[in-house]
Amino acid sequence: MLNIQLNGELSISKLVIGCMRMNDWKLSTEQVVEFIEWCIERGITTFDHADIYGGDHRNESQFGEALKLKPSLRENIQIVTKCDICVPNAKHPEIKTRFFNTDQAYVLAQVNESLEKLQCGYIDILLIHMFDLLVDPRELGETLQQLKSEGKVKYFGLSNHSPLEFDTLQKYTDMRFVTHQFMLHPLGIQNYHNGTMTHCLKEGISPMIWSPLAGGRIFKPTNAVEENMKSVLETIRQELGLTHIDEVVYQWIFKHSSNPAIVLGTGNKERIERAIQSAENVRLTREQWYKVLIEAGYTLW
Length: 301
Fold this sequence. Notes:
By secondary structure, the protein is of the alpha/beta class. It has a domain at 3-178: Alpha-Beta Barrel (TIM Barrel). It is 41% helix and 16% strand. The chain has helices at 29-41, 59-69, 104-118, 137-149, 163-171, 190-193, 196-203, 224-240, 245-254, 269-280, 286-295; strands spanning 3-5, 11-13, 15-18, 46-48, 78-83, 85-86, 99-100, 123-128, 153-159, 180-183, 208-210, 261-264. Strand 9 (153-159), helix 5 (163-171) and strand 10 (180-183) form a beta-alpha-beta unit.
């Protein structure tokens, strides 16, 4: 498995295991350990979390229980987690409306809680999950510096921010954001339309792409537009001699010169194996790549 060097000291695997649905996989702690080991053996060493993932926000705890059972796993993986989304839940019944919070006290508390749930001493990459319209960028910069100084977080990035939002927050911190995580798939190309992919080239960062298969709609279309895209992907699959259309999607994402990572929100080992093959052997032509982009609704001129 290929790695992506985010800076002089930090690299992540080109495939990242997204743990948002881990609670739905119904794995025992022992099975989570086995799954992490299986991933490491294949060169997948990066695992993506958020403080709100899972039933009652439990997915970090589930992963942490695996690390407690086998502590040696920690030195072989990179943990990414996120914070700033506040949602109604059993632990915080006082919250009635979803909102974002980048206040210093809140971010520090959430990071401490994530460390406790993950049962580890530090987070490799902390992402600000969504852009907080009430953010005080100076205060946030100070918060990130404190987390770095305390050894609780090694590096920082953003998730689901526009280029302007990214640049605004970057201006107020001396620590360079190492990645930007956002959605991209052949049924959702807004991050090409709004310049976010090009912004990654400008900043020299590798993005982390989530929902590459559009939540399964690539396989099970719900309208005529999606049916057409499935047909396009199937034609390219046949042209390339691939076994499944998800391989076409992975290659379409990997072909971009920003050197993206893909966040796979699945525990399906066959799908993960296909993604590994795609990461290591991108054969999609420039014409095929543009065919997908155009059919997705992008106008070249």
